[in-house]
Amino acid sequence: MKRVYIMAAIAIFIASLFASLLTLSQVHSVKTELTSRLQVRSETLAESLTESIMSSYNSGWTDGVQKIINKFTRSESLVGLSVFDNTGAMVAGSKDMPLPEDRNLINTVMLTHQGIGEFVDRGNHTYYVLIRPLYVDDVIVGSLAVAQNATYIDRNIREIWQRDLVRLLFQILIFALTILVLVRWIFFHSISTMVESLQALRRGNSQIDTIPHSSFFKPLAGEISKVTKSLRQARQSASDEARMRLEMIDSPWTAERLREFIKAYLKDRPIFVLSNREPYVHSKTKNKIEWSVPAGGVVTALEPVMEACGGTWIAHGSGNADEETADKNGRIMVPPDEPKYTLKRISLTEKEIEGYYAGFSNEALWPLCHMAHTRPLFRSDDWVEYRKVNAKFAKTLLAEIRNVKRPIVLVQDFHLALVPEMVKKSRPDALVAIFWHIPWPSPAQFSISPWRKELLGGMLKADLVGFHTQQYCNNFIETVGNEIESRLDYEQFSIFRGSHKTVIRPFPISISFPGSAEGHAEPSKKTLDELGIHVEHLVLGVDRLDYTKGILERFKGLEFFLDSNPEYQGKLTLLQIASPSREMVEKYREFAVLVTEEAERINKKFGVNGWRPIVLEKRNYSHEQLIHLYQFANVCLITSLHDGMNLVAKEYVAARNDESGVLILSEFTGASRDLNGALLINPYSAEETSAAILTALMMPKTEQQRRMKIMRTSVSDYNIYRWSAEHIKALLQLE
Ligand code: GDG
């Protein structure tokens, strides 16, 4: 649109310039004509006066001339007359005669024998003064000056400018309006209808066929119609194939298959996802609004599912332009460049964020569930906010499902443990699952929470509680056994409280592979070039800047490696992408400082000739950039001290279309149960990490391929589409 305005402005400028030039030329010719007429009139007048004046010359001119002057200056067009003798002195003249400033003109006229005409300004008036020589027998005896009013010439010119300018302004207005109407109704309208039709088609609405057929767009519309027809056919055959595969256990899970599965199993029952983190954040910097995908496993895992199935995702709107970009109900269709599902944003106050998110979720529950030796902080104020915000989420969901029968509700993670109970209280017909994305600790570890019973009570109203691994399921069921009066059924892995049954199941979360996690694009070294990394061996770490991810232990392992294998100094770099996380929590701020200091210390110890062993990037990278980094990393180093699953491990495997590269993986991650081809380590041991790095660097290509193949098969067999399908299937079986 901006370009259209610029073009219109240029066109208006050119038209105005042209119109001004026309006016200028008209003004010029009018002025010339009026001036020449005035000159002619002045000449005629001067000639007729000369005779009368010369008749009084012989009788000593003064008296006679003055009488003639008085007689003639009574006429309206003649403003004044003056007569000069041959020395240039005035003989007689009318009162207020406007003479030129330059009195030499009178002598010049007599010397050159040539009459001179001059415009003279007086106050608001302009006069034309003609000076002619006076002769007696061909001898100059003086000169005559005749002044006429010339103000009307300027007035005429002014009127022409005014009239033309008004006309020009009017033309510009009509022109601008025409352009606007043309652009808006013909181009914009047609193009946006075309875009809407294409978007609807892409979203799978095969009924839409509103490509505009105006003659202007006919050729384009024709081409688009053909492309959309092919797209529809391709989609239909993909859908038919997916339907056929639905019942074939061994066929791979894809977005298409999941869509067919959802259609077949859920019919038209919509899905509602609730999570703290939203999948798209809109932020405003210097009046420019941009969106980004926040770092974090929950978003990575659920985004492709929502893209495939549609539905509504309810989350905290944490961006400073989130409110502005959503409608008045906080709803916005996402992904922003290809809308497929609804994101409903909840706004939280500073106090709520502080208590519910920073406080209870991140300072109490997160360290409680992770064995990373950070003490949980339980504050009753935080607990109050946690309950309040959980109620806010539940209330928002209840409003969304008001008219939906038997809705499917998928609650995500430890931020919303109380939501299942709050929802079921008002809507017992809702099928509710909660998925716990982080580890579930041992009963003894969990027992230190002052609100353990309330948390378990909230979760146990769900129909299904999911974890990544069987171990976490075991820990959970034991914890419930220790804390809550209930009946445990180890046979079916379910818990009964009164008549309500909750099933506990492991669903090892994954990524969209085959799909967007794959390295489809040509590998690009752009990011590495920008970072100035040109080493033989690239070791990569990608994590949120979180103390559970073992980044300090990773650095220690690298230090040990460089000490024990000095031949690798200068040849190997650890690129650590550490996306900022939970910066409002003090522990995280302290941790960020420690990580920076440790990287600096190690770089100082080994760095030489511009080479640094650690490149620490404490900023957010896009998924595309991360895929390019995975594609060039000889080693992906994951040293989490405790991690529910760890999706980075799976992303690295998915990006390696070339089947090379080595994954070093902490044995304390959920992913270590799924990825058999990885080199497993205890990250607390710098020696073990160092030995694994050496093994990885020396590993023959064939061995790398053997391991990578095993891992890629495992991730593609159990990808996020299968995770979602199994999760939903398990939930539906409970009805
Ligand atoms: C929790 C559990 C579990 C990283 N930096 C950037 C970025 N990331 C992405 C990675 C990956 C995700 O964030 C991190 O996922 P993880 O699974 O490693 O870890 P958590 O965030 O702690 O997730 C975890 C997960 O939930 C799922 O259940 O696996 O155990 O702790 O996808 O690629 N993404 C973007 N920019 C970055 O700079 N956009």
Distance between the termini: 53 Å
Number of domains: 3
User: What is the SS-derived class?
Assistant: alpha/beta
Quickly name the level 1 CATH class of the largest domain. Answer: Alpha Beta
**Strand portion:** 15-25%
Radius of gyration: 44 Å
Which whole number gives the mean pLDDT? 90
Low-confidence stretches: none
Could you give a quick summary of the protein structure above?
This protein is of the alpha/beta class.
Walk me through what this model shows.
The protein has three domains: 2-155, PAS domain (Beta-Lactamase, 2-Layer Sandwich); 256-510 and 726-732, Rossmann fold; 526-717, Rossmann fold (3-Layer(aba) Sandwich). A hairpin with a 2-residue loop joins strand 4 and strand 5. It has 23 helices and 23 strands. The protein has 735 residues and is of the alpha/beta class. The longest helix has 54 residues, at 2-55. The protein has a ten-stranded mixed beta sheet, sandwiched between helices. The site of GDP-alpha-D-glucose has 26 residues, from helix 7, strand 18, strand 19, helix 18 and helix 19.
Q: Mind sketching the topology for me?
A:
Layout: H1 2-55, H2 62-72, E1 78-85, E2 90-93, H3 104-112, E3 116-122, E4 125-136, E5 139-149, H4 151-202, H5 218-246, H6 255-266, E6 271-275, E7 281-285, E8 288-292, H7 297-309, E9 312-316, H8 322-325, E10 331-334, E11 341-346, H9 350-369, H10 380-400, E12 408-412, H11 419-426, E13 431-435, H12 443-446, H13 452-460, E14 464-467, H14 470-483, E15 487-489, E16 494-497, E17 500-506, H15 526-531, E18 537-544, H16 551-564, E19 572-579, H17 586-606, E20 614-617, H18 623-632, E21 635-638, H19 647-655, E22 662-666, H20 671-674, E23 679-681, H21 686-698, H22 701-717, H23 720-732
Parallel strand pairs: 6-9, 6-12, 9-11, 12-13, 13-14, 14-17, 18-19, 18-21, 19-20, 21-22, 22-23
Antiparallel strand pairs: 1-2, 1-5, 3-4, 4-5, 7-8, 10-11, 15-16, 16-17
Bound molecules: GDP-alpha-D-glucose.
